[in-house]
Amino acid sequence: MEIFPTALDLVRKQSPERPVAMVRRAAVSVAAQWFQANFKGDVFYAVKANPSTWVIETLRDAGISSFDVASLGEVELVRSLAPEARLAFMHPVKSRSAITRAYFDYGVRTFSLDTHDELRKILDATGNAKDLNLIVRLATSGEGSNLPLTNKFGAQAHEAPALLLATRQATQDLMGISFHVGSQCMRPTAYAAAMSAASRSLVRAGVFADIVDVGGGFPSVYPGMVPPALAEYMDVIDRAFEDMKVHETTELWAEPGRSLVAESTSVLTRVELRKGDALYLNDGSYGTLFDATHAKWPFPVKLVRADGTDAEGELRPFRFYGPTCDSIDHMPGPFWLPADVREGDYIEIGMLGAYGVAMATGFNGYGQTDTVFMDDAPMASLFGLGPRHISTPRSAYDTYEDNKVVRLNRPKGGKRGKKRSK
Ligand SMILES: *Cc1c(COP(=O)(O)O)cnc(C)c1O
Q1: Where is the active site (predicted)?
Q2: Domain of 81?
Q3: pTM score of the predicted model
Q4: Residue 80 domain-assigned?
């Protein structure tokens, strides 16, 4: 398999017609090794962040043997690549047949739930199996997270004790408690708050947990979002675990998704047309740039000019449009690129390993990406593989305040279409 040293080599050799996921296996291995060395418990990879075959294989080869799956499709995928892996079905709402097949056909023993109805469903669908590990998912406040996951899942504090007690009585194997502090969580203390709430619920229920699962949410680095060191998250979790009312043998689990894969992948896109400060690309919000549209994240970019000549002019703020005919397919950025960027130029968009390729759809006939392996460094890294910060040319355009990206100085330009027109 060919490995490209730089994006320019790739452009010169292939002049790619479709968007290309430029992937760095080393970034995933290093992140996986870091978590295994520094998290004092079991690391489950949350497959939904990036279900690519190469990711699962790289994690498996780096020693990750546990996976957080949320659908039968993910169960089948991981089983096919890592037959020995331990799978935890951590979606609190599952179909009966998905539970039955996961249990009987794929050996899944760990299931999460946040209601009495789901508990009953799991018991029914497994023929009242006695060897289940049942994990009660608690709601969290979502404080400190850029993409909170609070409304959809999790038992509220007043419901949790009864559910914990019922779950404890339903299994002869392990009973656990879990939560998700929200994705791209910028505050380590969010984990401590959730763990102490979990501890209070356990005390009120009068039961011990065999597993404390702190979920995902570990951040990566993006422009305007530079988190505290990951070691700080580990310290906070260690201390909070010591403060919890649990027994000696209670296991600590985590389910990082984003953090293990975000750095690994850039997407190489091509400029098909320029209109002023708007660049029309061959990738967009129905492709790998979902968060650039819906969370308005200004991902870091680099210009790659096909003939290898240097671009001219100082960096200017641009916005992107994707290839589909839907006006939602717009990424406001700002993305800072040389003033003379033009049709035929390629743009490498960094930090798209998590929730990038995973989100692509086939809408309007677009959405297919090719994958190539790279051996250059990620655009930024919390694991020492690249710069820890992504600097933006005019630091005044963004400040990081109270975990929100505040845009002080929006780039001027045409109207921002809010309405859909297909
Ligand atoms: C999405 C998800 C994760 C991973 O979250 P990240 O923010 O990507 O780390 C972990 N656990 C569950 C239950 C999830 O739904």
Answers
A1: 325 (proton donor)
A2: 25-261
A3: 0.91
A4: yes
